[in-house]
Amino acid sequence: MFSFLILFFFAATGFTLNHAQWFDSQARTAQRQGALDRAWMRTSDADGVAKNKIIEYLRRAERVRGSVGSDEGDFTVDDSQCQISFKGPAYEASAVIDRNTGNYQLTETRGGFVALLNDLHKGRDTGGKWSTVIDISAVFMAFVSLTGLVLIFYLTKRRNSALIAIAIGAVISYLIYAFWVP
Q1: Do both 92 and 140 map to the same domain?
Q2: Distances 92 to 27, 71, 105, 135 between C-alpha atoms, Å
Q3: Residue 116 lies in a domain
Q4: pLDDT tens across 108-140, in order?
Q5: End-to-end CA gap in the chain
Q6: According to the model, what pLDDT value does residue 71 have?
């Protein structure tokens, strides 16, 4: 039964992904500004910036969520400014910090419920735990599909008609791909 719920989720979000223009995809963007402790901008850390303190301050003071990640592009430091990108499903925030003054500009973009479901479907910016959920879901769906196919061979009265239906479905799928997909 768990597989059916997962199958419904991926079928429904597959539909919303395929017809994104039908659903509310308006992202809400907000801009805020503030100031950080200037001492965090000139430290003895590797980049000369107290990255962890800055990230935790923005999470606490601005209620920023999402992960910064381990990618060097998510937190860049140069002589005059720092840039941080926080990413999550249907969410993105970026901060640009002036290293001389500690002043920052924060831009936060939040997608709607359908955008959240679509990002979960794609595994976009969801992290390793959700990736594991997707993998387990794929195993469950494959198991249900394979057990259904195996059961066909034990149902002698319906075996031939089921195999014909499978063959017709495969041919129709190929024809749709061959003639309608550019």
Answers
A1: no
A2: 10, 15, 14, 25
A3: no
A4: 999 988 889 899 998 888 888 888 988 988 888
A5: 37
A6: 57
Nearest to 78 by CA among 39, 36, 41, 38: 41
* Rounded Cα distance, 45 and 85, in Å: 20
Domain termination site, one of 56, 88, 111: 111
Assessment of whether the complete model's pTM goes beyond 0.90 = no
**Residue 46 pLDDT:** 66
Burial degree of 146 (CB within 10 A; 0-12, 13-18, 19+): exposed
Q: Are residues 107 and 145 in the same domain?
A: no
The amino acid sitting at 82 is C
Shared domain for 14 and 33, answered yes or no, is no
9: in domain: yes
Reported as type and span, the H/E element at residue 45 is none
Could you identify the residue written with the tokens 């008609």?
161
Residue with tokens 């901060």: 95
Where helices occur in 27-112 by DSSP H, the ranges are: 51-62
Same domain? For 56 and 101 the reply is yes
Binned at pLDDT 50, 70 and 90, residue 144 comes out as confident
Q: Are 91 and 67 in contact (CB under 8 A)?
A: no
Confidence (pLDDT) at 1: 67
Same domain assignment for residues 69 and 141: no
Tell whether 107 and 33 lie within a shared domain.
yes
Residues 104 and 164 in one domain: no
